[in-house]
Amino acid sequence: MERERRKVVAVIGSGSATEEEPGYQAASIIGRSLVDNGFRVMTGGLHGVMEGAFIGAKSSKRYREGDTIAVLPGIDPDDANMHSDIVIPTGLGIGRNMIVTNADAIIAIGGGSGTLSEIAFSWQKGKTIVALDIPGWSGELGGRALDDRRPDDVVIKAKDPHHAVELMMSEL
Amino acid sequence: MERERRKVVAVIGSGSATEEEPGYQAASIIGRSLVDNGFRVMTGGLHGVMEGAFIGAKSSKRYREGDTIAVLPGIDPDDANMHSDIVIPTGLGIGRNMIVTNADAIIAIGGGSGTLSEIAFSWQKGKTIVALDIPGWSGELGGRALDDRRPDDVVIKAKDPHHAVELMMSEL
Amino acid sequence: MERERRKVVAVIGSGSATEEEPGYQAASIIGRSLVDNGFRVMTGGLHGVMEGAFIGAKSSKRYREGDTIAVLPGIDPDDANMHSDIVIPTGLGIGRNMIVTNADAIIAIGGGSGTLSEIAFSWQKGKTIVALDIPGWSGELGGRALDDRRPDDVVIKAKDPHHAVELMMSEL
Amino acid sequence: MERERRKVVAVIGSGSATEEEPGYQAASIIGRSLVDNGFRVMTGGLHGVMEGAFIGAKSSKRYREGDTIAVLPGIDPDDANMHSDIVIPTGLGIGRNMIVTNADAIIAIGGGSGTLSEIAFSWQKGKTIVALDIPGWSGELGGRALDDRRPDDVVIKAKDPHHAVELMMSEL
Prior knowledge:
4 copies of one chain form a homotetramer. Chain A is α/β, with parallel strands linked by helices.
């Protein structure tokens, strides 16, 4: 009998996005849609997009405690935003980006240089990456190959949050 | 209103302990007792003590899916034992030991050099460490200070599995 | 009396560039120029641009054994290219990219997703980054800000290898 | 033609040992003897034993600039002690212990929990470990096997600093 592990999708994006910004709202829609579809949601555990994704996850009717996973830069679990169910303090600083990119798939929402490093690591690891077409690195890299190590493969461009989850699911 | 994050306790010990060995059985009792008391259980996600702890956790009446967290050495989530609910592939090899020791508290069960490095890291980070008094590094270090950076503090020695959980809880 | 530590400059770029490619040749010119100017050269220790930079370093009249530093992904020192004087095996895999970006300054030469993650980490850490204007991520990011965390700062675009070293030196 | 890479020996021990303590003096003798015999010396780059080893290295007649390698916890190269020729800032905190243990061989001098984690990692990686027989973890572990993964192997016990280098050399 096969264990059915629930898959984990990382949502990455700017930690400074405010509630009014499209990235934050997109993260919330994506978080909810992921849990609606039986996934867990992993982020870097801080604010902005990371918080939006968790709030969305918790608003799903299928949400169960344990569905939001925060992979923190520091060693203090209390640094996690208050919507984090599972807290993994790493002590690796921005190096935790690397760990986040080991999720089953990655959805990128806008983002600055932290998100850029996460997308680059995900690409190196051969992961499915879906990038929302909004300002920031997700918008810039959607539809592109980052180098030639993944022939015929690209960072998948999604026109809106629901589309992002659909595209990701079609790849897993 | 305060978020009530459920605390995470790391159970560490030999990955090669078989079901017949006392360490495996102790891990199972400890895993169940931890979930009985509202904790989640984190391990390195492989076999031996790591598996025993998760099987125990799942046997608790209070177990909910999401209570067992596997922090893996590699990047393939399928390396986790089949009792792992949450899988965090790190790609850090034996360096993941470091991350495991960022749990809220640590319970050590026997163990070889991997467990020894985890106990040493936990000590450096000021964590509560309870060590079961059985053969292996937990038995050897229980009751001792590893150096003088934690005055009046020791690795707490526990005479049996239930005692280990009680002692840990009295420190948190 | 002040210690005068010689500064270390990381040269990053594609590990698959062949001797005939412009990136390899640029790396060689940059490596020599760096040692001519009293710097040590650090790379990821493998092939392509990493090798070219070390060969260049060794061709400088001011070269002294110890001027080439290889920060390897694995734990086997013999993985380093044969021009590596100092070998630091990390066991961190592609995560060693992070460590390379802690050099005093970074010069990027072309490059794929590995180089991209290195540029992104360097930016997060506030390092001086000079990017050679040739095909690859260095060419694409030269002259740009990666996000708004470094106001008025950009990845510095260099039109040729000598220019890259001059620009880097003017920033240190 | 074979490259002849000079081997690197890590010297590990307490960062708080003062000049008057036997560990500091032993580190100095070992550092000098290592360079006398053509090795480079690697440490965690801070004070105590790490400093003593570098001062000793520099007192060797065969010393050449570049023989002392500091693998730092933080990202600021200026944290290294002033006898560090090559500085590798890692940003990994106490996790850099892991990297230090990838040297060609390890000599342990006294030490607390940091040294203990380094010895445990070195053992897991199959490295030659020589432990000086003085108070601290090196004294306690010399002559012992840390677990059964290295049959017939032990942490090699050395009665004095010169003996430590001789024993290490006989194993490489």
